[in-house]
Amino acid sequence: MSVLLFPVIAFGLAVVVGRVGTVMFQEKDQQV
């Protein structure tokens, strides 16, 4: 089970980090 959940969790974290990074980048770009 852990072996099957690992890629799913890793993909989820990558998507979350990507979304947060994009939002922060957009906000910083707007401020500047």
UniProtKB/TrEMBL annotation:
Protein name from the UniProt record: Uncharacterized protein
Recorded superkingdom: Bacteria
